[in-house]
Amino acid sequence: MLKKGLYIVLLALVLVLVSCTTDKTDKTEPTEPTEGSEPTEVLIEKEIKSISGLEDIVITEGVYFHPLRDVVIKNEYDENISYLFEVSGQVNYGVPGTYTLNYQLTYGEDVIDETRIVTVNAGTIMAEPVSRNQLQNQPTLLGDGSFNQGVNTSIDHPVNPRFIANHLKDKAIPSNGWWTSLLVQNYGGGNGIYTNPLRSSFTNRGAEITNPGAGFVQYWNPDGFNTMANFSLVLPDMYLKTTDLNEGYETYVVDYSDTSVAVSMRNLSSLEDKMVLTYQQGSPYVFVEVSDPTRPYISLVPEGAQGIELYTIDGVKISDSNYQGDGFIIRYINKHIGYETSRPAQVGQPIFGDRYFLVSTPEGSSFNITTNRVGMNLGVENVYSVSAINALADAPYFHQRAYQKPLFGNVSYDVNDKTSILETYYHLSTQSLKAEKQEVIQYLLPHHETYSDVSLTNYEFETVRGFLKLMVGSTFTTSMSFHGLLPAMTLPSNEAFSEIEMATYLNDLGSRTEINDPDNFLNDEGPYWNGKALYPLAQGLIIASQMGDDDLVLEFISKLRYLLSDWFTYDGATDEKYLYYNEQWGTVYYSNNDFNTATELSDHAFTHGYLIYASSVLSMYDETFMSDYGDMVDLLLSDYMHPYKDDYKFQYLRSFDKWAGHTWAHGFGTFAEGNNIESSSEAIQSWVGGYLWALQKGDKTLRDAAIYGFMHELTSAKIYMFDYEDNVFKPNYEAHASVAGMIWGGKYDYATWFGANPTFIYGIQWLPNGEYLSNYALNDQDRETLTLIYADYLKAKNQVIDTWFANMWSIQALINPDIALQQFDASKILNDDYPSDLSQTYYLINGLKTFGQRTTDYIMELHPHVTSSIYINAQNEVFAMIWNATDDTHQVFFVKPGGIRTSVSVEPRSFTSFKLS
């Protein structure tokens, strides 16, 4: 145990811990109350428990050195908090010698201030051992379920993650990210890497650095539908390379964090890291380290510009071929950045604008300037940075702060059970390349700015994702209020609701999802399409229970269990439905490869989410399902909602981008515009399923992960898919639509993968329909925005809904359930793409008529097993619908306006409404 003022010898390292001058901020952990009592809180003091990895070290010349590699600082929760270190000094890893680094960290009342010696010796670089080995081919039993692993040639698999350093294989390999194309193809296939604000890619010419800017809107008219996209021209600005890198080289990921990646460029069959680039989301800079400081150069790309000029940091034009200093500015004169366009598909005059880049180098660097090329000699140091700036006058500000190299970006979160507030903490650890530490600056995305109170500078940068605002500091916090989730609604009681009609629709649901019928979604070969049966059946199970129809309850339990147990059991080589665990990645996929869930690790969260949701609902009504197959549900859920970092078996929150705040659909992101997401609502729904399962288990860590993912996914959908804050879509985009069908690293589309019908474009963000959609309309401002969005949809369709009636009427019901009830026509849903949605749609619309609209004036204090949503109806009556899927009675607490608390005792395995006011 480390205490202030103590000198402790640990692992042959003497650490001096001195008193901390900052306020101590400890954390409280709630404990579950017993029946009739209130929850209590236990104070957990911040404390450093152990330290390792700060010993002096000897490395081989030419091997990239990351100052935080193998450094582990364990806190009171056994979490590694080494990301809190601030490091000063640098290691020129390509030049033999002795280098000094200083490490400083403050945590509670403990402070570490330690000097470390790094010695670079000449020698032969030895390949590191591979730490992931292929498991044997065998079924693995979990409860009554089982899965397959090891060698299996009968199903499709992804390529192994080849282009990643072996030392990073001691934990599950990331996928579905903004940089993960780099893992599966050399150069990442030349595909786009977007840090916002910069774009990069790799080619034979080197590492591309481009300012994509805000892009422009282009229109098309396929199949008579008006569509459009906001994107940037593919006109690179520059390439970074060294003269000792061959034309053909290899790229390897040598480090990554929640928000960053470091990429090495090596000659073929060589282990020497000739050049390493560090990309940090939100950073104005890309940092470049080289093994030989005399070798770096920048190739300037003249295409698309009327000329290129170089300036000193002070804005004086450079005319000589040789120049000395600590950096320079590149100006692209009248760069071609887009076109004037108009509907339906006209492309007019080109748009031009100046582009500026700042290159910051060590003091005393020398530059040899030839046509479209700048050779650099960095002297005794080996790091420089490149950033895009808006004007010459901005250079001094950004140059002064260009020597804080990102080391590790960490994103963590905390859920306050009392206030139901999610706080997300963003921390960027940096390495000071100069003797005096400079300010750390970061560009915030719109959702960061909206949900934080961080002070901002006057600097901003326009991108496809909107205006990025610049902050000073290495940390900031966002705060979001969580208002509960439910799998459905309790029984409606409005005059229009007919239990006879409801029973008819439920019987129709049962008859069209027969176990022995091969031509329905229940028996489809693909798990995603199975979800189109599982979700309505799970909804139907809830409705049947609310109706008191025991026969239908048993029927729906049987059908849900039939399909879920099939996926959760491996019966050998002839089995057609089972789960497979891939150890090379640390991921789970299906024996079926629809949507490339296996070969490209795509759509895992979307697909898994349907099975997890159905499992959660089934466990409420089938008392044996959790004991029989709960471990298999855990296995599948861990593939996308694993709440622990640095784990060997599963990747932490796979698919979820902690900086961007949303899921990425494609496993690798092998597209020119980066990765993409289409159905934000299916991503949201995946967290709903995970949340319900966490409550079933009483797992607070899992529950908080679900709340974190749900809140950010919802916020991302509101801000980036629908532009709720009116600060993302360009004027000539929002003049024609209020939605993006897909968002990418570097563009957004008014389209889908399967067509440009506006019903698909809007509807793919609103399916499946369920109670969770009410989070799009939590308050009056939300409802006003949603009303305008839905009106724009109807305008695009000339006021006529042509398909996906269930989804559209569900959104209409959030705005005005009376109109939805008037429009409801069972025959239209029965003749639509998804007729099984009929019963849940009728039930949801009537539920919204009965209970009204969501209110945020009341909250339920969070509980490890129980959840609720709170509504206010037309008579100003406030109801909480409460879900308790466990075998125990639980007491929950509601907070009314003015802070008045009231408690409710919730019966076991119950779903009921309670009048609060």
Quick rundown:
Helices cover 22% and strands 32% of the residues.
Q: Percent range for helical residues?
A: 10-25%
**What does the main sheet amount to?**
14 strands, antiparallel
Assembly classification: single chain
Counting helices, strands and paired strands, the structural category is: alpha+beta
β-sheet strand percentage:
25-35%
- Which residues form runs of ≥5 with pLDDT under 50? 1-25
Count of the separate structural domains? 4
CATH arch. level architecture of the largest domain: Alpha/alpha barrel
CATH class wording of the largest domain: Mainly Alpha
Overall pLDDT, averaged? Answer: 95
Q: Look up the CATH topology of the largest domain.
A: Glycosyltransferase
How large, in whole angstroms, is the Cα Rg? 28 Å
Number-wise, the strands total: 48
Our measurement of the CA-to-CA distance between the termini, rounded to an integer number of angstroms, reads: 51 Å
Principal-axes shape call: globular
Number of helices: 16
Please tell me about this protein's structure.
The chain is of the alpha+beta class. It has 4 domains: 7-126, Immunoglobulins (Immunoglobulin-like), CATH 2.60.40; 195-402, Distorted Sandwich (Beta-galactosidase, Chain A, domain 5), CATH 2.70.98; 499-854, Glycosyltransferase; 866-915, no CATH class. Helix content is 22%, strand content 32%. It has 16 helices and 48 strands. Strands 13, 14, 15, 18, 19, 20, 21, 22, 23, 24, 25, 26, 27 and 28 form a 14-stranded antiparallel beta sheet that branches. A hairpin with a 3-residue loop joins strand 40 (742-744) and strand 41. Mean pLDDT is 95; it is low at 1-25.
